[in-house]
Amino acid sequence: MKTKLLVASALAMVAVQANAGIGVIMRSDYYNNSKFTNTSNQDVPGVSTAAPTTARLNFTAPVSDATFYMGMNFRSYDTVGFTYLTGTGSGFTTETVAVKRGLTVDKFIENAYIQKPFGDFSLSVGKVEQNLGGYERESLLSGDEYMASLANGSTVGLVSYAGSQTTTVAAPENQSGIEIGYTITPEHKVAVQILNQTNSAEASLSGSSTSVGANLTKSTNKRSSYSLQYEGMFADKMVSTLLQYGVAAADTQTQNIGSPALTQLSAVINNTYMSASVKAKLPASWLVLAEYFANSQLADATGSKKDATTSAVITARMHEGMYQPILSYEASENKIQEDSANASSFKRTAYSGALEIVPKAGDAFRYHIAYNSFSDAYGAAGLANSTVTNNQMIVGIKYAGDILK
Length: 405
Description:
Blueprint (H helix, E strand, L loop, with lengths): L1 H16 L3 E13 L2 E2 L5 E2 L2 E17 L2 E8 L4 E9 L6 E10 L2 H4 E10 L2 E8 L5 H8 L33 E11 L2 E9 L7 E2 L10 E2 L6 E11 L4 E19 L4 E21 L3 E14 L7 E12 L4 E13 L10 E12 L7 E14 L8 E16 L3
Antiparallel strand pairs: 1-4, 1-22, 2-3, 4-5, 5-8, 6-7, 8-9, 9-10, 10-11, 11-14, 12-13, 14-15, 15-16, 16-17, 17-18, 18-19, 19-20, 20-21, 21-22
């Protein structure tokens, strides 16, 4: 935490001298998640908690004819874990240990890059913002989303056998690399990104030890990820489109179990991410968004089958006035190993209704209340309960503004 405060203080001092800007986004919420029944027909208690959902600083400063951008997420933690075996012979027991590394600079600085124009072209170098996740990702980063889709990392109610958490293929975090942008016309733009691979957050066991003291090492796989983005505006800028496609190199951890030793090896993973988004301005200050996401993950191994997460989201929201309602619908599917009957494969239907209250036009403060309902239908045979329903209430406040103005 001291490191974060020092970085923020230094940026504030530089910004005052450099005619820069520091945008602050703070959102604090009270969450009430209802009790629900998992697929083993076990009741999972409800949870009520207060949390600072969003805490961000966005720093912008001119550097000659270029611009420096930095985004810091004070709610981002670097957590790693690993699995090990205890016992001998055939009497192995698998245990999982989580290791929290804390608030590392590499983690909480979500983006830090310099962008320089060259006529109709632009070059961005550094830890750039991933061109993946559509308009919904932008809304999540700005603290304006109340029901994230599965494809953008929602974890609400994800349970399967015995209450264990289900995995999904979600849009990745930002990575370092370059972006080349081209402005075709002011209303039409394209961008290409070449970035580092997406490393697993999991640490790996090296050697043949089953003890907690085994060495923790990051993957040594170093490949590149690529993405292509198109932004367009039509009908006198009343309709906007955002098309994104990415091929991302990644890694995961696989287990090679000996007797009695365990060696955890790094496996090469290939991810693809696609999103198609349309946003339309309607009369009476309404905005309608329709988005489709299709993410997949495939291990580079003989006979492997892909995991896939798809989401379709429709949102209608009012963006002016004191009372601004928001209505959202989501239809998603999570399919593991191309098998609808897998323990972690399910289809989700979700609804959200929210109301944002802006006491004064242009005011930096906003109040909000939201109600979300999730219904996950699992396809595995023999489940005691095949449909998991989870409801969530959110009440909170948000501040967004430039602290130098």
